[in-house]
Write a structure and sequence with these properties.
Layout (H helix, E strand, L loop, with lengths): L2 H8 L3 E9 L3 H16 L2 H10 L22 E2 L2 E7 L3 E8 L2 E13 L2 E11 L2 H13 L2 H18 L18
Antiparallel strand pairs: 1-6, 2-3, 3-4, 4-5, 5-6
Length: 178
Amino acid sequence: MDRAGHAEISALPFVDVHTVLVDAEPAVVWRAAGEAVTRSFAGGPSEGVARLLGAADPAASGARPPAPGATVPGATVPGFRVVTADEGRTLALAGSHRFSAYALVLRLEREGPGRTRLRAETRAAFPGPAGRLYKLLVIGSRAHRLVVRRMLARIRRRAEAGGPGSGRGAGGEAPQQR
C-alpha cells in the first residue's frame, strides 16, 4: 500500500476482520476477489444507494481489478475507490459518504501450495449523531458482517471452482485420488 493510502486507511478506527482459507493459488483468488468486488458494488442498487448516501464515489469508473494494470489508484466502484491494488497481495478500497468514512482491505497470503488465506479488514469512522445511528444500523444489526462473509464465500467458491492454480480440473471438479 502506498504511504498516502496507508495513512488514510490506518487513521480509520478498526471495525472487524473476517478470514477464509481458499484452496487456490493467490493469483486465482486475486482474480476472483476483483470480480466479486466489481460485481458486488458495480451498477444497479449499489449505485443508487451510493447516490442516496451522498458517496464521494457514486459510480464505477476507470480500470478495476482484475483488469490488467489495474494497480492505478483512483478507479472506482459505487461507494469505493481503489487506494491500492498490489496484485495477488492487497486490494484496498476506501470511501466516504454523509455518515461515514470507511475502508475495506482484502489481504491475500499464500498458505502453502494451492492454498491462500484471504482476510477482509474493515475500518470506519462514524462522526456525529447521524454517524452513530448509521453505525447502529449497519454494524450493530450485523448486516455488515453478513455482507462481508457472503463476499468472502463468493470469492472462495469462484476461486475454487476452476482456473489455473485452483487445485481443480477444467470443469471445477476436485482432482481424483488414485
